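Problem 12. The chain below contains 221 residues. Write out its predicted structure in token notation.
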Amino acid sequence: MTGFSATLRRELTLTLRQAGDSAVIVMFFVLVAILFPFGLGPDPNLLARIAPGIIWVAALLAAMLSLDWLFAADFEDGSLEQLALSPSPLSVTVAAKLAAHWLTTGLPLMIAAPLIGILYNLPTNVFPVLLLGMALGTPVLSLIGGIGAALTLGARRGGVLLSLLVLPLLVPVLIFGTAAADAALGGFSAKSPLLLLGGILLGSLAIAPIATAAAIRQALE
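Solution.
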């Protein structure tokens, strides 16, 4: 836990020094969501119906922006090799970096989601389900994205390869996150898709740090 907390503090401190990066991700999230009404028209009923899907697609694309540099900077300056040689298990260090990534990327996107809901005329009773779904789903974006970021370390055009690797794996999160909000919008229970999102999150928490650490060791050899 000492290694985890130390790495988490380090990552959060570095991110706060470059707070503009997180702001850019949130701005991208909002801008992507704003573009859809220009193509689909101003019908408030249509916008409310498609709002959950738009929010999740925009969040997924915004999260992808930050994954490319999740480990790249530490890999280039040799810090990642030092972290791998530290007494703390690499999987614990990786878990701290992924937690910091969610706190600086996924959490701001979750906070900004109600703003998009208001712009899309989404009923207020849907907001709790939407936020709960994002609380369960956005950490998965960081966890699965971390595996892809580690696998593409040092690769040419790693950003494109990262997207090809990660996006198909995140489709279930997109489906169940949208389904939960759609169920609430239609007056139905959102329990089943939320439980599935929770199961995906638990599985990712168990697998992602270990898989990411293994991929990093492979990249360092």
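Discussion. The mean pLDDT is 87. Students who got a different answer should revisit the alignment rule from Section 12.3.
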